[in-house]
Amino acid sequence: MSHLVPRLRHVSREPLSVGFGVMMPYGSYLPASRQVGRAAVAVASIDGLVSNVLLPFGGFAVAVFAGWCMTARLAATELGFGAGRALRLWQVTVRYIAPVGVLVVLLQSL
Known about the structure:
single chain; about 110 residues; mainly alpha; 4 helices
């Protein structure tokens, strides 16, 4: 991606912003630790919400769905397992261990 940055800068003839996108005119060109303004606060708030709440919640939802809603036959087909010990280990991990682990991460980030 970094090899595209010089080329993209010449296409738009505007300052290239990789982190702020359309919000860049409202922010600052300073490094992230020194940015001030509404845009920096908004982006930091949205980033914190997504990183600390939505991603762990999505992981929890996927683990619950894969462990409790998918049939064993479908899981074995998708994962390439037989109906043996590997499938049973996967089911136990996804049903019990993964949701608890993701909830711990979610609670620690709040």
